[in-house]
Fold:
Amino acid sequence: MRRVIIAIALTTAAAGAAGCSSGTAVRPAASCGTVRTNPLNGLLPTSKVATGPEQRAYRCFTAAAATCAAASIQVVYSGVDFGSAVVYAIDPGGTLARCPVTAYGQGSSANFGGSTSPVQITHCRAASVTSMTARITCPGQQPFLIPA
Structure:
């Protein structure tokens, strides 16, 4: 079964949230590419100021989410000494506005020689897709908007 994967880096861990588990999971690669947040405010660049590769990643993911098709994107949040990445994987075959999504989140730290946390898995869904955004909803987190 093909999976749509979206990777998004978060500044906070989602451990302990409903639908969350960890173990030997691996954060998958992102077929649509990578987008990075602004290190000053933690926000994703809008589609107007995103780089060419980021714009392609946005378009790739929102187009796939609109039809519950396989695709992937990575969003990276980073700070001075801590960062994290979350990969959102859409299982194709869902109904529009209800595509099942799995988030694979992983944090990292540069402190004391560096470390990487285990991958945390959260079951989410693509709540809505428009020509402007794909909205991902996960338990215990604010909805995440990916611009088109």
